[in-house]
Sequence to fold (408 residues):
Amino acid sequence: MNFKGRHSSIYKSPTTSALSNSIKPMDPTILQTTTRNKSPCNKDRFFCSSNNQKSPSIKPSMGENVTAEYTKVPCHAIPRKKIVPIITDKILDAPDVTDDFPSKLIDFSNTGLLAVALGTAVYVCNDDIVTELMQRRTIINSVCWWKDQVVLSGNGKIELWDYQQRIPIRAFESHVNKCVAIASHKNKLATAGYDGIVRVYDYRTDNIIYEYQAHHGEIYDIQFSIDGTQIASCGADCSTVVMSNNRRKMRYHFKSEIQSVSWMPQGILLTGGNDENGTIQQIHTRGNDENRITAISGSPIGKVAWTENWGTVVSHQGSSGIWELWTSDLHRLAKYQCHKKPIMSLAASNDGSHVATISLDETLRIYELSTSIRGSPRGTPTQKTKFHSTPINSPVQKDKVSFYANLR
Fold:
């Protein structure tokens, strides 16, 4: 398959507004957004509500021992003490959030850009600038950064879009029905669909490196190991498959569906179960003996994501709107009630400094995690700031503060 050259997309390219050539100053309390593309819906996306309604509280659970030493440490990148981070967040209105779970609606790039899929459109949040990347005729199920470009999927069709020029540049082989599992690592891209097939592409050659039948039925999530030598996938067949660079395939069986996977250092695989107990497991994939560490979270898992600074970030399915932090030895560190309705997707930045959640309450929240200040109450959040933006088709002022300026 040859992907070279500009691709003629089935997607509908965004239109250019004349307002982009006539920028006018506005209220300085309004942050900057781009005006190049007109929003495809009558309610502007990422537009902060003006009713000043009080948001759900963000408080960690108070029943955890947050100062005890680690009893067992499966990897080296762990702090000596369990510290509850201070959480500050920004809230953006996000209409048209799909309720088709699982979906990968948000993803951080290596440089901190956040791609967001809302209904039939994809947006990129870059500090104080929100850019409409594209819009299409069907629902976007998954977004993923590959280097500085965005891979997106809808109805099993997959394309690569140039973030700077906002044009499609490659088309990938389609999956049957749906593809919600996409992951990248340097020059490699992996896609996995509801057909149970995994395909791995090379950025340099535009070709499929290899493909394999990983699962019998839907694949929910796929992730590269930190060093890129292994790929883990999970699906509806109650198993997790790990494929190594040498094409060695290992299958791990579970009693229930595995909803999400993530990687810790040294080849330790994290799994989040769809069972009523919300089982989290660590699996040592590089040893001769299968060694599992298990913890019970209390409710079905929606997403697990490993961060170097804070351990494992976990979101739950259902109506709780809760996400949590777990230590590297699987002890719950803190619990945060942030949404009024179920969280549909969760993403963590590579350095663990930011977490994002998007919910059926039609809000996108971006959290900054920082070390607690000595002497401050445990888990007390700093003052929450609100995100203000203008409609995408409105003139804006260029001189604005940074997106995270008031959070630091």
The chain has no helices and 28 strands. The longest strand covers residues 86-93. Confidence is low (pLDDT under 50) at residues 1-5, 13-80, 373-408.
